[in-house]
Structure formats: structure tokens, C-alpha cells
Write a sequence for this structure.
């Protein structure tokens, strides 16, 4: 049975929330930056370093490598505050959220010492090397090949949708290290490698995104050598490691806050003046949904902290949270008086255009909703007649 | 099952009672007969209808969370008993004003007025004809007062909500000696009653949604087509996921709203919960019915006992449109930089 235990922030978590708010009020006053739409945000290494110095990155990582060993709820509190302001989290986002924890869990002592301190400081940036041109939802079908060569591996293939691959430092790349023909299950024989994005033979080419940005890349790996010391975890265990990388992050606030800044800017336009009823209706509906999604996400984070495995719950939240993010954009498009014009530089119109054209990606990235529904449905089991 | 109550004893006891006494047949008969006497008597003997009403005032004691656990059970089993009316609403008004709590059903009427000491007006009253007392919150100058009227003194036209539960038109024209009148407790006004009534519908709906999800999962895991259970089809799984998501949202909203009210700081909680419930009713009943196919729209299969109640309750204690606009106004007042605090606080 699915369980979302009700939870509230403790006094110390409230205190953290207060500190983060104060810090961000100071660092990101309104008008000093372009608010982003969720984690599809600008890369600002300077801002990431400041967050690191403040102790807001690598929060769950081990102290011996510079981490803070704080809870999933603490991280939830910080993430919520960053995303609702549309903070420029692009530089550290993947490293902090995904690569750091996966290295802490599966990495060697050498890898932990080498990478985690830089991630915690907000310096090192990472990419996710999962999807390929012919391998999306069916991730076990990845074709990028890893071949044994001396004291390392040679990678050959293509990765795609690799955000900031042309600018970032490292990528964790999922490869096939044993051909499918030699296996009974194609989820076997996969391995993960920590790949230097400046390696000889690696080419990252931006793919122009629908909103005109060029952060997405295609990465070509042409005989890229990776030494043994950069194999992540065990050869052949890539599928299990990769699954754990995805599982619990699905229920976070990044899955329902992507269009929040658009709503906030709409509200800003109506400050000091009457709010038309149709705007109040849209705001009211959205507010109710944010209010409950906050509680659901908090419940998932709390469950992780108490040793739970809320994979089904996370999938349910991501599936409805991302649809809601789109609904907000649709609803706001339904009430604005003027057609958005590309020449308009106001924060609201800029966000409206960007949100409208990028909203379709909300329910695709990080696992399409169709696949998520299958994951979630596994948790919906008969009760034996109990209500 | 539900975490409303401080301990699970109340919820477990209610669940056992409902499992024993509130089969779909009992619900069906109550709709035809207008009453489920055995079920009400069992509730009454256990004191459940008066939970959250202080025992010093003649109630059963316990917290609002305990009362919510009971209402959630009533929602799960579509139980035709006026517990929300008797305790959480009428009992709350009576206890707050020091008036006597009747031993039988009590219910509430809104929109009445005091004219020269007479209580007048027409009101649609849930379980009106079944009640022993009808309790009204009326304005007397600037003050709010609680009027408690013996139902026997009233002219009543029977009606029912779309779930077939009594919803009667009651004509009030009662002279000053014909009812009890006392000052309402501090903070009790029409809006407080509206919020509390709305919360009762949210909790009942949360229970109904829990059961709706479960029977939809159960049915689709039994029903076979094309040689396999229909729960194995992706298209059907989508309905299961939608129904479960609606249930999860409404249940979380109900619990957060109960806690907010119990802490004396309802804020936007009840408005948000009512708006969410209304949207979930539209989405969740559609998904659950579609997953059931034609069986779900028959009277013999109990899905309708849940969905018809959800469709009925959405109309009670404020329309979604009213609550939505109220939330939008709260967002506007908070402003762009502070509206997020409404979400997290």
C-alpha cells in the first residue's frame, strides 16, 4: 500500500528555512537576476560556490569528505527555497543532487576524496550520461560500448540530452561492458564510468533547445580511454547502481516548482492593484496544489530519512507534480490579455514564453510519465477486501 | 490506515464496527428507508458521534483528530450516519455556547435570522427530519448566537442529496420560547462554521477516496479480458494511478487541514483542501468509473455508494469556485515574494 505519512518541519528545520531565506534575500534580491524555471536554470559557478560556502551543497554527503551529513528533509528545505526563486542552480545541480550521492554510495576511497570535496564546495560540475539517440525510456538498451584495454576501458558511442556537457567537468556514463548476446538479461553487463569531459576523443555538441538555448548536448565518445580508477562501483552492476541513482529523487520539489516563478511574476504584476477574478481563480487553484505537493514531497523526504524506500510514492508525486507544472502554464496562458511577444523583456513575458515552449519537457525529463505510471502501478496492489 | 487520531485505538474500533455493520446492503437499504438504525445505535452506544465535544459539556471528549479518524471511516464505508452533523458541527456549537447536547441526532442550519426574538427562515438541512435538535448560528446585532430548536416544532419537507442521504427543507418560524438561545463561543461566527463544515466534507471525501482507490485496484485485479487481468493493461494502470493520486492529495490535504484547525491556525488550509477535493472528485471519479467499465454504473456494485457521495459532498459548505477565489485573494494579499510562505507554513 502506498503511504504518505503526514510530516511537519521541526523547529531546527524551520530555523534552516529561515537562514536560507535570509541568505537568498541577500544574495538574490528581486531584479538582480533572471529567475529560472525550476532546475532548467542558468549556470553560475560563483553563486554555486557561495551556496557551497554556506553549507547548502552536498548536504547529505559524508563529513569526512567535506559533506554535512544532513537529512533529506534539510536538503528538501534548501532546494525548495532555491527553486521557488528560480535561482541559477545550473552549475551544481546534477553534481549535488545525483553524482555526489552516487559516488558516496558506490565510489572508491580515492574517488570520494577526489570528487566529493569539490562537489560540496560547488566547484565541480557533473553531467548525466544515460540517454542515447536510440535509448531513452528503455535504458537497458544502451549501446555505448566499454572495452577492456590494459589498465582501463575504452568507451565508444554516443550520449544525448547531456545538459552542459560542453561546459561541465565530468559525466557519469552508463555503458555496455558485456555484449547482450552473452547474457540472459540485458540489464546485466552494464557499467558506470566517471568520464573527464575534456578527454581526448570526446566531443560535446550543443543541440539547440526549443526555447533557443543551447545547454543540451550530444556527446560523441570516440575511443575515449577511462582508467580503472574511474570505474564507478563494480563492472556489470551499472543497472542496479543507476536505478538507485534515479529512484528516490523523483519526489522532490523540482518536480512541481518548474513554473512557480511564472506564477510569482504574474502576482508581482498585480501588486498594489486590484486582482481580476479570473486571475484570482487561477492563483487559487495553483496555490491549493502547491500547498499539498509541498506536504507530499516533505513526506517522501521524511520517509527517506527514516530508512524507507518510497520509490512508488516518488513516482506518484513526479507524475502528478509535472502535470501540474504544465497545468499552471496552460491556465496562465488562458488569462493573459496580450499575446506574448518575443521582444518583450519583462520577467513575466520572458518566463511565459519560455514556460510555454519548454513545458512539454516537464513530463519527459527524468523518466517519462508513461514509464512512471508503470512504476507506480506496481505499488497499487489488491487489499483483500479491506477499506 | 489514517493518522488523524493520536493513537490507533479509535480508528481501529471504528473500522471494526463499520466492517461488521456497514455492508453495501446496509447502505443500500438505508437509502431506501432513510435510516440505518442498527448502525446509528452502535455508533451512539460507543459515543462516537460526540467525539471531540468536551465531556464536561456532555460530549465524549477526545480530539478533533479522533473525530476525523471516525469521519474518515464513515467515508470509507459510505456509512449513512449523521456523525459530522451531530458532533463536529452541532455538538461544537452547542458545547461552545453552554447549551445542552441532545442524546440523539443533532444537525445544523445556516442562513436563518432572529427577528424580534423569533427564529425565522428556510434552510436545507442534512438529516433534518431524522434529528432531535436543529442547531443554528444566528446574528443578534453584532453578536453571534447559537439557537437550538427541537425538531418536533418544525415543518419539514423531505429531500435527499444526490447520494440519497436526507437533505430536508426546513421552515423555521419559532417564537422566542420555542428554542434555546445562548451566546456563541468566542471566535465562532458564520465563517468558522463554514470552514468546519467544509473540513468535515473533506475528511469524509478523503475516506471515500481511500476506499474508491482500493475497490478499483481490487476490481481491476480480478476482472479478466483478452486473457489477463485488466490491471495489467497500461491504459488501465493510468486510471489506477490517477485514482490513487487523487486519494493521496485529498488525504494529505485533509490531515494537514485537521491539524491546522486543531492548532487554531486554519490559515488557507481548509480552503485549499476543499479546492483540491473538488478537483480530485472530478478526476478521480472519472478514472475509477472508467476502470470499472459498465459494472461501475450499476446499483448492484457498490462503486456508486462512494462516487455519489463524493459528488454530493462537493456541493456542501461552499462551492469550489468560492474557495478558489478566496485562496487567490490570499495569494494576492501575500504578494509575489511572500506567497510561498502560505504554501510552507
Amino acid at each position: 500500500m502506498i503511504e504518505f505519512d503526514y510530516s511537519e518541519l521541526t523547529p531546527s528545520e524551520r530555523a534552516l528555512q529561515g537562514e536560507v531565506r535570509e541568505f537568498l534575500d541577500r544574495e538574490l534580491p528581486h531584479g538582480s537576476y533572471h529567475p529560472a524555471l525550476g532546475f532548467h536554470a542558468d549556470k553560475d559557478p560563483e553563486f554555486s560556490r557561495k551556496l557551497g560556502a554556506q553549507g547548502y551543497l552536498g548536504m547529505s554527503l559524508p563529513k569526512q569528505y567535506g559533506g554535512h551529513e544532513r537529512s533529506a528533509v534539510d536538503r528538501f528545505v534548501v532546494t525548495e527555497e532555491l527553486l521557488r526563486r528560480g535561482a541559477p542552480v545550473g552549475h551544481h545541480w546534477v553534481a549535488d543532487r545525483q553524482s555526489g550521492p552516487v559516488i558516496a554510495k558506490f565510489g572508491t576511497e580515492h574517488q570520494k576524496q577526489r570528487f566529493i570535496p569539490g562537489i560540496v564546495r560547488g566547484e565541480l560540475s557533473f553531467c548525466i550520461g544515460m540517454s542515447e539517440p536510440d535509448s531513452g525510456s528503455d535504458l537497458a538498451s544502451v549501446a555505448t560500448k566499454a572495452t577492456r584495454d590494459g589498465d582501463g576501458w575504452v568507451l565508444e558511442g554516443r550520449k544525448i540530452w547531456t545538459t552542459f556537457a560542453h561546459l561541465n567537468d565530468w559525466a557519469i556514463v552508463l555503458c555496455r561492458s558485456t555484449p547482450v548476446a552473452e547474457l540472459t538479461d540485458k540489464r546485466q553487463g552494464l557499467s558506470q564510468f566517471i568520464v573527464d569531459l575534456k578527454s581526448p576523443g570526446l566531443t560535446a555538441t550543443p543541440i539547440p533547445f526549443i526555447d533557443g538555448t543551447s545547454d543540451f548536448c550530444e556527446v560523441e565518445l570516440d575511443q575515449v580511454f577511462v582508467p580503472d580508477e574511474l570505474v564507478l562501483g563494480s563492472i556489470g552492476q551499472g543497472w542496479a547502481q543507476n536505478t538507485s541513482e534515479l529512484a528516490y529523487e523523483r519526489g522532490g520539489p523540482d518536480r512541481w516548482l518548474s513554473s512557480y516563478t511564472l506564477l510569482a511574476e504574474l502576482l508581482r504584476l498585480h501588486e498594489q492593484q486590484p486582482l481580476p477574478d479570473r486571475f484570482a481563480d487561477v492563483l487559487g487553484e495553483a496555490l491549493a496544489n502547491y500547498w499539498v505537493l509541498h506536504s507530499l514531497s516533505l513526506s517522501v523526504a521524511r520517509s527517506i530519512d527514516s530508512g524507507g524506500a518510497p520509490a512508488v510514492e516518488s513516482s506518484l508525486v513526479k507524475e502528478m507534480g509535472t502535470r501540474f507544472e504544465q497545468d499552471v502554464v496552460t491556465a496562465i496562458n488562458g488569462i493573459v490579455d496580450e499575446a506574448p511577444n518575443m521582444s518583450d523583456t519583462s520577467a513575466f513575458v520572458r518566463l511565459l514564453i519560455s514556460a510555454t515552449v519548454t513545458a512539454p519537457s516537464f513530463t519527459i525529463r527524468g523518466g517519462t510519465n508513461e514509464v512512471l505510471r508503470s512504476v507506480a502501478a506496481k505499488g497499487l496492489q489488491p487489499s483483500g477486501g479491506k477499506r | 490506515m489514517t493518522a488523524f487520531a493520536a493513537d490507533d485505538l479509535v480508528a481501529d474500533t471504528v473500522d471494526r464496527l463499520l466492517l461488521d455493520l456497514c455492508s453495501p446492503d446496509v447502505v443500500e437499504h438505508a437509502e431506501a428507508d432513510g435510516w440505518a438504525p442498527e448502525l446509528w445505535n452502535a455508533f451512539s452506544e460507543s459515543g462516537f458521534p460526540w467525539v471531540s465535544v468536551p465531556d464536561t459539556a456532555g460530549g465524549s471528549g477526545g480530539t478533533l483528530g479522533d473525530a476525523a479518524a471516525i469521519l474518515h471511516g464513515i467515508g470509507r464505508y459510505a456509512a449513512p450516519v449523521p456523525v459530522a452533523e451531530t458532533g463536529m458541527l452541532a455538538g461544537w456549537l452547542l458545547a461552545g455556547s453552554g447549551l445542552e447536547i441532545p442524546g440523539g441526532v443533532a444537525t445544523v442550519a445556516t442562513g436563518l435570522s432572529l427577528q424580534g426574538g423569533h427564529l425565522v427562515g428556510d434552510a436545507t438541512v442534512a438529516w433534518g427530519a431524522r434529528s432531535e435538535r436543529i442547531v443554528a448560528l444566528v446574528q443578534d446585532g453584532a453578536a453571534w448566537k447559537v439557537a437550538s430548536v427541537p425538531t418536533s416544532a418544525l415543518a419539514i419537507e423531505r429531500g435527499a442529496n444526490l447520494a440519497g442521504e436526507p437533505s430536508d427543507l426546513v421552515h423555521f418560524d419559532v417564537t422566542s420560547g420555542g428554542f434555546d438561545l445562548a451566546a456563541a463561543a468566542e471566535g465562532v461566527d458564520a465563517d468558522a462554521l463554514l470552514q468546519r463544515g467544509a473540513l468535515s466534507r473533506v475528511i469524509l471525501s478523503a475516506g471515500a477516496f481511500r476506499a474508491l482507490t482500493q475497490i478499483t485496484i481490487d476490481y481491476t485485479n480480478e476482472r479478466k479480458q483478452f486473457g489477463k487481468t485488466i490491471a495489467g493493461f497500461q491504459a488501465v494502470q493510468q486510471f489506477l494511478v490517477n485514482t490513487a493520486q487523487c486519494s493521496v492529495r485529498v488525504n494529505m490535504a485533509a490531515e494537514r487541514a485537521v491539524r491546522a484547525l486543531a492548532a487554531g491556525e486554519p490559515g488557507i488550509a481548509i480552503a485549499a483542501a476543499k479546492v483540491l477535493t473538488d478537483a480530485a472528485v472530478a478526476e478521480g471519479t472519472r478514472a475509477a468509473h472508467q476502470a470499472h467499465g459498465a459494472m461501475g454504473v450499476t446499483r448492484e456494485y457498490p462503486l456508486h455508494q462512494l462516487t455519489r457521495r463524493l459528488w454530493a459532498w462537493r456541493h456542501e459548505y461552499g462551492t469550489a469556485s468560492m474557495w478558489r477565489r478566496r485562496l487567490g485573494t490570499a495569494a494576492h494579499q501575500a504578494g509575489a515574494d511572500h506567497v510561498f510562505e502560505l504554501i510552507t507554513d
